[in-house]
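Customer escalation, tier 2.

The customer says the design service returned an amino acid string that "doesn't look like it belongs to this structure." They asked us to rerun it and document both sides in this ticket. The original structure tokens are below, unchanged.
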């Protein structure tokens, strides 16, 4: 009893007066993890000096882990003809020229871009107990405050290194490179503003495509069965560049000391507006979902029910630019729309024994599957999920049982890609737009691993969706039901408009190639 009284009189006041967690600074509070403060950890734990031998050990562990991420990398090799594992190995020789840990961290970070997967990156994330996936490939120890402190430093190092570059964001369209956003080019006291969709012809007398490969060897063009649209950047080191561009219909030569890419404020997912419109003339319900966010969907659901008594010939869900988020967001959206249960198969394959799948789903129904189009040595994979997933109608729903037309582009990823991939699993969903060239599986949270020497933390996606897969390309699940190749005027309109104000329906009827094509499709299919 005395111990309890002492606890309340001494410990409780100490706890109450302790510094409260500042969640603007703190990382996630998860099971088995503490709340960490980046600045405190940076000051307490300085990055040690690493020898070349340690760098080689980390690099070899990295390659070993990447090999274990099959079938992902083997599928990419089959689909694109590009052997990423071999190209990772080639970069090992770069360590010979590295003189500091900053360059080594940047080397590993650049290698992650080979995956062309939005889930693959390095960062000090708090869900670190997932690292045990790779306990056989790394000298795994549960992450400590020191490990997190080092990783916060690593991230800072990457940011400092990026300050030494000027980035010119471009979009590859029909064999040419175009500036994605307005760009200001500086030379001495002069400056020139380039409009969005200015054509890059040459840089330092090299064709733009050649300069891209020379400047960034990891920016590969994955082109398979369809013309690839993708966003990339030219990485400008400080110093003069000679730019030959097509601007305002004329070729122009500029000398560039530095540049500034004027990325609009709407470019962050949280700045894009979600909205619902009923189009009276066409009896259509248009829903704009820029991020897989539960709170956004709640607002959308409230707006949907306002039109419950209106005739709805078709529903259009616009997820262009949606980089993902929570799968429950689109589950809830479909539940609020459909008056009947929407069912679709789930077949996920993975190798090695994926810890998170086993933890979340167990090993029921586990069996081996074969894909004859893959190499003989890599065609057997373990199947963890083989079932039918059902989305039941919400208590209050629109009672719409027609086709949901999903507008997609090359910038969707993660759970947005999973939503779009429903078009390969059910006839209730059809996609209109452009492919991404990225994998869109249906697995759980991506996995984490830690390199043995530097203790650098990485995240990578391991689970592939094997529904209706008959060739390597089918693994991508990104082929639109109705492909659309927009005009340059469309890109100029789409990327330079203010997305924080929402979509102007009148402008969409006039300038939105994807939306206008969708209207034609709906009209043809309703005959």
């Amino acid at each position: 009893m005395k111990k309890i009284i002492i606890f309340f009189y001494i410990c409780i006041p100490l706890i109450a007066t302790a510094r409260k967690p500042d969640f603007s600074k703190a990382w996630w509070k998860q099971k088995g993890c503490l709340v960490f403060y980046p600045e405190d950890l940076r000051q307490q734990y300085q990055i040690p000096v690493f020898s070349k031998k340690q760098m080689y050990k980390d690099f070899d562990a990295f390659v070993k882990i990447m090999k274990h991420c099959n079938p992902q990398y083997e599928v990419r090799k089959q689909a694109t003809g590009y052997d990423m594992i071999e190209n990772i190995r080639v970069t090992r020789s770069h360590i010979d020229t590295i003189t500091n840990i900053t360059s080594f961290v940047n080397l590993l970070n650049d290698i992650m871009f080979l995956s062309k997967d939005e889930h693959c990156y390095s960062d000090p994330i708090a869900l670190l107990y997932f690292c045990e996936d790779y306990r056989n490939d790394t000298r795994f120890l549960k992450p400590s405050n020191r490990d997190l402190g080092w990783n916060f430093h690593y991230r800072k190092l990457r940011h400092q290194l990026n300050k030494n570059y000027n980035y010119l964001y471009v979009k590859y369209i029909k064999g040419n490179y175009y500036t994605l956003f307005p760009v200001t080019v500086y030379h001495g006291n002069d400056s020139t503003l380039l409009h969005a969709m200015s054509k890059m012809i040459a840089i330092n007398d090299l064709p733009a495509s050649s300069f891209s490969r020379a400047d960034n060897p990891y920016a590969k063009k994955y082109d398979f069965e369809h013309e690839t649209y993708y966003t990339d950047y030219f990485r400008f080191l400080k110093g003069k560049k000679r730019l030959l561009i097509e601007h305002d219909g004329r070729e122009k030569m500029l000398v560039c000391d530095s540049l500034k890419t004027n990325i609009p404020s709407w470019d962050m997912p949280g700045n894009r507006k979600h909205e619902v419109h009923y189009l009276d003339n066409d009896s259509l319900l248009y829903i704009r979902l820029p991020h897989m966010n539960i709170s956004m969907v709640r607002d959308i659901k409230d707006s949907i029910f306002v039109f419950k008594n209106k005739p709805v010939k078709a529903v259009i869900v616009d997820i262009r630019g949606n980089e993902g988020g929570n799968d429950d967001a689109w589950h809830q959206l479909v539940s609020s729309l459909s008056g009947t249960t929407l069912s679709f198969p789930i077949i996920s394959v993975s190798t090695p024994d994926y810890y998170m799948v086993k933890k979340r789903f167990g090993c029921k129904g586990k069996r081996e599957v074969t894909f004859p189009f893959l190499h003989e040595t890599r065609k057997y994979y373990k199947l963890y999920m083989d079932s039918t997933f059902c989305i039941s109608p919400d208590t209050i729903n629109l009672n719409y049982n027609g086709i949901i037309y999903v507008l997609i582009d090359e910038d969707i990823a993660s759970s947005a890609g999973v939503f779009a991939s429903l078009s390969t699993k059910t006839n209730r969903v059809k996609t209109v737009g452009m492919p991404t060239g990225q994998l869109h599986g249906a697995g759980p949270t991506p996995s984490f691993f830690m390199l043995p020497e530097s203790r650098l933390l990485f995240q990578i996606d391991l689970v592939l969706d094997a529904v209706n897969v008959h060739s390597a390309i089918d693994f991508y699940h990104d082929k639109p039901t109705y492909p659309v190749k927009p005009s340059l005027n469309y890109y100029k309109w789409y990327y330079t408009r203010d997305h924080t104000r929402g979509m102007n329906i009148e402008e969409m009827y006039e300038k939105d190639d994807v939306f206008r094509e969708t209207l034609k499709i709906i009209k043809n299919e309703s005959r």
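Tier 2 assessment: The sequence is consistent with the input. The chain has a mean pLDDT of 79. DSSP finds 15 helices and 23 strands in the chain. Sent an explanation to the customer and offered a walkthrough call.
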